[in-house]
Automatic annotation (TrEMBL):
<feature type="transmembrane region" description="Helical">
    <location>
        <begin position="237"/>
        <end position="256"/>
    </location>
</feature>
<feature type="transmembrane region" description="Helical">
    <location>
        <begin position="193"/>
        <end position="216"/>
    </location>
</feature>
<keyword id="KW-0472">Membrane</keyword>
<keyword id="KW-0813">Transport</keyword>
<feature type="transmembrane region" description="Helical">
    <location>
        <begin position="137"/>
        <end position="155"/>
    </location>
</feature>
<dbReference type="Pfam" id="PF00528">
    <property type="entry name" value="BPD_transp_1"/>
</dbReference>
<keyword id="KW-0997">Cell inner membrane</keyword>
<comment type="similarity">
    <text>Belongs to the binding-protein-dependent transport system permease family.</text>
</comment>
<keyword id="KW-0812">Transmembrane</keyword>
<keyword id="KW-1003">Cell membrane</keyword>
<dbReference type="InterPro" id="IPR035906">
    <property type="entry name" value="MetI-like_sf"/>
</dbReference>
<feature type="transmembrane region" description="Helical">
    <location>
        <begin position="167"/>
        <end position="187"/>
    </location>
</feature>
<dbReference type="InterPro" id="IPR000515">
    <property type="entry name" value="MetI-like"/>
</dbReference>
<dbReference type="GO" id="GO:0055085">
    <property type="term" value="P:transmembrane transport"/>
</dbReference>
<dbReference type="GO" id="GO:0005886">
    <property type="term" value="C:plasma membrane"/>
</dbReference>
<protein>
    <submittedName>
        <fullName>ABC transporter permease protein</fullName>
    </submittedName>
</protein>
<feature type="transmembrane region" description="Helical">
    <location>
        <begin position="103"/>
        <end position="125"/>
    </location>
</feature>
Length: 264
């Protein structure tokens, strides 16, 4: 039986490694191109250099765009956490029948394409007392709505897994008030779901382009808008930008994975 399983196991490993290599090849080629002095008519580059990375990370415009992207994404996620956690607790503990309605409402941002939403937002917030077009505040509001489905679904699954009502009843029997139980008992148990939702939302928002380009553009240049505006510059420079972006997301993923590990 084991002898029969060995060829199948070997086949599965070969397929997985082939898929991994296929996915890795474009990234490896981009990395090599970002490190090359020149690469045109040869299989391998003529030489290797870090000058494109030095030029990128010494560019004040890039650093400003990188910092602005971080501020907008973190601001939207902070707003989402502050609003969505109490809402989810109230819905699941006091009004569980509303969960079906919330599932429909929370998916509405995906029902309208970003281009259509941007046109409407330009009309509403382009002038008047709430003129926010061209400012980071309109991006924070847009990113907040985009992050809602990711956060709602991940945290809802976590709430259902921990059996919220039984956990709250046990805390009440021990003398804790509802809000004390929510902060000291329920919230620590939501760490995994919260970290997953924050990671998914941040990864999606950090690469968002349509809202940023149409609503603020160069008036509050984010990283993706900067990359689009630099498309006519050196391909080596753009490759260094792409690899730096990927490395940052990879580092963030590693940090989120470390934080998400259960403590012994």
């Amino acid at each position: 039986m084991r002898a029969e399983n060995k060829p199948a196991a070997l086949y599965h490993r070969v397929v997985v490694w082939l898929l991994f290599l296929i996915l890795l090849l474009p990234l490896a080629a981009t990395l090599l191109y970002s490190l090359s002095t020149s690469w045109s008519a040869t299989i391998l580059p003529d030489g290797l250099t870090f000058k494109w990375y030095l030029a990128l990370w010494s560019d004040a415009r890039f650093l400003a765009a990188f910092g602005q992207s971080l501020l907008v994404c973190l601001g939207a996620l902070l707003l989402a956490v502050v609003l969505i956690l109490p809402l989810l607790f109230v819905v699941h503990y006091h009004f569980p029948k509303l969960d079906g309605v919330m599932n429909i409402l929370i998916l509405l941002p995906f029902a309208v394409p970003p281009v259509v939403s941007s046109v409407g937002l330009l009309q509403v917030y382009g002038s008047g007392p709430l003129a926010m077009v061209g400012t980071p505040w309109i991006l924070i509001g847009c990113y907040f709505t985009v992050a809602l489905p990711f956060m709602y679904r991940a945290i809802t699954n976590n709430l259902q897994a921990i059996n919220l009502r039984d956990l709250m009843d046990a805390a009440h029997l021990l003398g804790a008030s509802t809000w004390k139980a929510a902060f000291l008992v329920v919230l620590p148990n939501l760490r995994n779901g919260l970290m997953v939702s924050l990671f998914l939302s941040f990864s999606f928002l950090f690469g968002e382009f349509v809202f940023a380009n149409l609503l603020v553009g160069t008036r509050y240049e984010t990283l993706q808008v900067y990359l689009n505006n630099m498309r006519n510059s050196s391909g080596h420079f753009n490759s260094a930008l792409v690899i730096s972006y990927f490395f940052f997301v990879l580092l963030f993923t590693w940090a989120a994975t470390r934080l998400n590990k259960d403590k012994p």
